[in-house]
């Protein structure tokens, strides 16, 4: 557990970066610090490993005041990941990962063996260990940065906007990888970002900071989206917070409907509505519009892209997005293996939400 007790950071020019911060980060969870630039979120993070010294208050890590620890020893016991990985360019990937174990007195053989093991843990082939950082993509460098932070198996991991320098597709993959690792390793993670979508996606608790280093709200993602504490939080979370809130509503009662389907490569008679094309494994491939071929063979080239897919048993946000992104206005629902199970409309999602509101207010 990490505890901030009335922690303040005031710089020599009188600027208050963090103002009386009090919160607890539960062990084995991901807590995200989020807010606009200059709000004190990174300063708060860096005070945990004493890269920035607090002006006042107390920070406890697992019940121990960080001021009672030598700063260098403290940092070796806390993993730290920064933007653009911060790797040593003149060292190989394996030697980068082995940095902290070597400083802690491990033999080179043991440290390198641990580094090779961690490459696989973060989803990279062991062969990359011989390369240098400049020979890796941005996403690979960030994974190496995570591996280096985990090398000495620290209980606490600090991550300062680690994924902000990569493109959106790579960023989503890195977020997925972090969630997978957390499920396996159960670390106490503090993650800094300026992106509320990233915060909602990975955080179990979110601390929203405002200018002046003031904590505006500390809550679960669902609470933050449905019950913002004040106008600042509401504006920061965004006007589409109701849509984001669907990420925390299960689709359990959502009924799927059937639609005309045809297999790619098969012959199809002209129809009056949209037809969903499937491959031989029952996976959706796209849509045939009503005015498409009459009595012709269905080819991939004649299909209209079908928008996103909703995996049955996941959150309603996926179902609504599938319906809104579909050219047919019908969101395609698939099972965990990607096989077609039916379709839903946006109205079905909205009706289900209304029904649940009525149940909650006692009108049903």
CATH class of the largest domain: Alpha Beta
The radius of gyration is: 25 Å
Number of strands: 18
Would you give the CATH topology of the largest domain?
Answer: Rossmann fold
Count of runs of 4 or more consecutive helical residues: 13
How would you portray this structure in words?
Pfam families: ABC_tran. Residues 2-237 form the ABC transporter domain. This protein folds into two domains: 2-237, Rossmann fold; 261-355, CBS-domain, CATH 3.10.580.10. The protein has 364 residues and is α/β, with parallel strands linked by helices. Helices cover 33% and strands 24% of the residues. Helix 7 (168-185) links the parallel strand 7 and strand 8 (188-193). It is built from 13 helices and 18 strands. The strands form five sheets. A six-stranded mixed sheet has the order 6-7-8-3-9-10, sandwiched between helices. Strands 2-1-4-5 form a four-stranded antiparallel sheet, covered by helices on one side. A three-stranded mixed sheet has the order 11-13-14, with no helix packed on it.
